[in-house]
Amino acid sequence: MKAEIIAVGSELLLGQINNTNARYLSAGLAELGISVHFHTVVGDNPGRLEEAIRIAESRADLLIFTGGLGPTKDDLTKETIARHAGARLVYDDEALVSIRAWFDRMGREMTDNNKKQALILEGATVLQNHHGMAPGMLFASGSRHYLLLPGPPKEMEPMFTVQAKPNLARLAGFSGPIASRVFRFYGIGEAELEHRMSDLLDNQTNPTLAPLASDGEVTIRATAKAKTVEEAAGLLDGAEAEIRKIAGQYLYGYDEETLVSKAASLLIGNGLTISAAESLTAGLFMSELAEQPGISAALTGGVVTYTADSKKEQLGIPAALLEEKGVVSEETASAMAKAVREKFGTDYGVGLTGAAGPDPHDGKPGGTVWVAIASGEEMRTRELLLSGMRNTNRIRAVKSAMHMLIRMIGDTSVRDN
Amino acid sequence: MKAEIIAVGSELLLGQINNTNARYLSAGLAELGISVHFHTVVGDNPGRLEEAIRIAESRADLLIFTGGLGPTKDDLTKETIARHAGARLVYDDEALVSIRAWFDRMGREMTDNNKKQALILEGATVLQNHHGMAPGMLFASGSRHYLLLPGPPKEMEPMFTVQAKPNLARLAGFSGPIASRVFRFYGIGEAELEHRMSDLLDNQTNPTLAPLASDGEVTIRATAKAKTVEEAAGLLDGAEAEIRKIAGQYLYGYDEETLVSKAASLLIGNGLTISAAESLTAGLFMSELAEQPGISAALTGGVVTYTADSKKEQLGIPAALLEEKGVVSEETASAMAKAVREKFGTDYGVGLTGAAGPDPHDGKPGGTVWVAIASGEEMRTRELLLSGMRNTNRIRAVKSAMHMLIRMIGDTSVRDN
C-alpha cells in the first residue's frame, strides 16, 4: 500500500507555519509498513487541490489530507473531494451535537458556518474530534482510500493515532510484525559513524539501517520485517550486536529516549537528587530536566548566576579565583558545582559557565564552555569548544552536561553493584 | 512568476525530520512577490524525482530543490536534473578548493566521494557554500529556472538569503515595493480577533490581511503592493489604524518581535535589571531571556526553587505562609518575587509558581499558575488557569510573565515621562 500526504492550506505556502503534520503521519505510516512516496502541499484553491488529488490518485492507494475541514469559506477539502469523487455531503448527527456542545461550553452562540463542519462524505467512517470541532473521515472510492484529518496538530495527532491508525492497519493487511529500534549516539559525528559502519550500511537488507543527524546527536533507525515478533526482535538484536562492536561507547539510549529523559530516569530510578548553578545556560539545564514527568523527586532547584557579581554573592565563589582563573574556567565551573551542591544539599551539583558566543567573554573565545559535575566523591569536568550560534551553543552545553551526568551515574551505579 | 519547492530526501518521507526548508523559502519568496503554488517532498529515488520534476515543470516557472547535493550514493538531485535537462556535470574549481580546505581544517583525508560535491550543472551560476561543503546553483533551461540548494538548514538558509534571493528578485522582474508588517497580539484568541475584524478581513484587497494563531499568540500579516515605498507604508499605516481601533489593547509588537525580545529590549533600553524565582518553570523564564543578545546588562540571575523546602531555605518564604496559603498561591508567588528581587538587588523580581499539570499539585488543579512581578513601588500578580499539556503550560506561564513585564515597564516609563 502506497500513501501520499496532501496538506491543504495557503498559510503553509506563505511560509507562516511548518507542515509538521506530514512528519507525524509519515512516522506513523512507517510503523504500519505503509510506504509514503510523496508529500504535497497545496493552497486553499479548489482547482489546484483537485489537480493534486488527480496526481496523487495516479501514484498512491491511500490519500491522506490534512486541513481545510473548518468553518470558513477557505475550507474546501471535503467539498472538493466530494465533487471530484461524485459523492454527496451529508450531516453527521453526532458531530453536530458535539459542535453544539463545544459552543455551549464556551458560552457562545453557534453561527451557521460552524454547522458546515458536521458535513461528511456520505458512507465515510466518521472520526470524531475530541480536541476541536471538525470531525475527520475515512472514505473509500473505487480502489482508493481517502483519509481526511483536521489541520491543527492538537486535533489531528490524537485522531490519527487513536482512531485512524487501527483502520489503516486493517486496510494495509498489516499482519506484522515490522519492528524498529532507534539507536541513539552522542559524542560521535554522523560522517564518522557512517564511515565506521559503511560495510554494515552497504549490505543492509533486513533490518534496514537509516542514520540521521540532528543537533549534535546521531541516531540509527533499524527496521526489521519477520514472520514473528520474536524473529523480528532477534534480527534487531543481531544488528545491535554489530553496532555495539563498532560504536558501542557512543550509544547512550534507544527509541524515544533523549539525553534529558535518560538523565532524568537515572536520577529518579536511583533515588538521587540534583541541583545546578548555571551561567551561560541561565536555567536551561534545570528547565529541560523539569520537562520530564516525576522529576520533582530528583530536581531540588538551583541558582542562575548570570553576572560575575552574582557568582560571588550567591555562590560564594572567591573573587580571587574569578580574577585569577577567569569566569570561564575549569576552576570556576568546579567551584559553582561544589557550591550549589552544598547549598541545596543534593547528591549531584552541576556547574555551567562559558562564552555563549559569538563574542568572546572574559577573554575566552565565543563557544568556550566548561561543565563540571560534583558528587560527594568526585568532580568531573569537561571543556567544550563550540562553533554554533549563541543558542545552539547553549543547547549543546546542556546536552553535554546531561551526557556527563548519564556517564557519571552509570559508572557509579555499576561500581556500587 | 510561479514557484514550486521540491524537497528531496527519504528521511522526510519516513517522518524523521520536518521540512522546515519549505517554510523558510516560502516566506522569502512571498517577500519577492513570487507565488508558491505547491510544495513537494520526494525520496532519494531518481525515477520518482524525475516524475516530480516533470509535474512541477507543467505548473511552475521556478523549481527550487533542497537536499540531495551531498557526497553519498543517495544524493541524486543534480544528477537527475542533468539527465532530465540534457545538461552536463562539470567540476567547479572554487567549490573543489573549498571542499579540500574543509577537510584540511578538520585534519582529515578527503575521500573520493566528496569530490562529487563540486560537480555543477554546466552553465549554472554557482552559489558557494560558506557553512558546509556542497555548493548550490541556479540553472536555466528553456523558459524555466532551477535553483538547487543543500538540505541542511544551516547551509541552505544563508545561501538562499544572501546569494540566491537577489538573483531571483532580478528574474522575477521584481520592481517592488511589496511591504509587509506583522502585528502581534497577546491576550486575545484567534476566533475572537477574527470575529472583531470580520468586516476588515472580508473587504481586504490592498493590503491583504492574513491572521495566524500559534502557541497562545495571534499575528496578522498585512501585505501592501504599491508604486513607491512611501505609498506602501501609507497603506500599512492605514490598516494599522483600523486594527488599533478594534484590538489595540492586545497589540504588543511588530514583525519578528516576540514577547521575550520585546521584554528584553524594554529592560535593556531602560537600563533595568531583573531576577526571577522559578518553581514550575524551573529556569525557563531566565533561559528564554538569556537567548536575547545583550541581556547580560539586564539579567542578573535568580533561583530555581522546585521543592517546597528550597522555597523556604533559599528564599526564606515562611513555612506558615506555605502551610496556610499553599505553594500555588498569589501570596507565595508574591513572596518569591519580593525575596528574589532583594536577594539579587534588581529593579524587578519575578515569581512563578504553579501546578504544571496534568496532576494537581498542593491541592490546586493542574494548569493553575500564579505569576507575580515586584518592583520597588508595586507588586502585580496574575492567575492563569491553563488547560494544556505540562510543557505547554510551562511555556504559557513564561509568556504571560513576559507580557506582564512588558505592560509593567511600559506603564512605568509612560508614567515617568
Automatic annotation (TrEMBL), chains A, B:
Residues 4-170 form the MoaB/Mog domain. SUPFAM superfamilies: CinA-like, Molybdenum cofactor biosynthesis proteins. InterPro entries: CinA, CinA-like_C, CinA_C, CinA_KH, Competence-induced_CinA, MoaB/Mog-like_dom_sf, MoaB/Mog_dom. It holds the Pfam family CinA. HAMAP family: CinA_B. Belongs to the CinA family. This is Putative competence-damage inducible protein. The lineage of its organism: Bacteria, Bacillati, Bacillota, Bacilli, Bacillales. The gene is cinA.
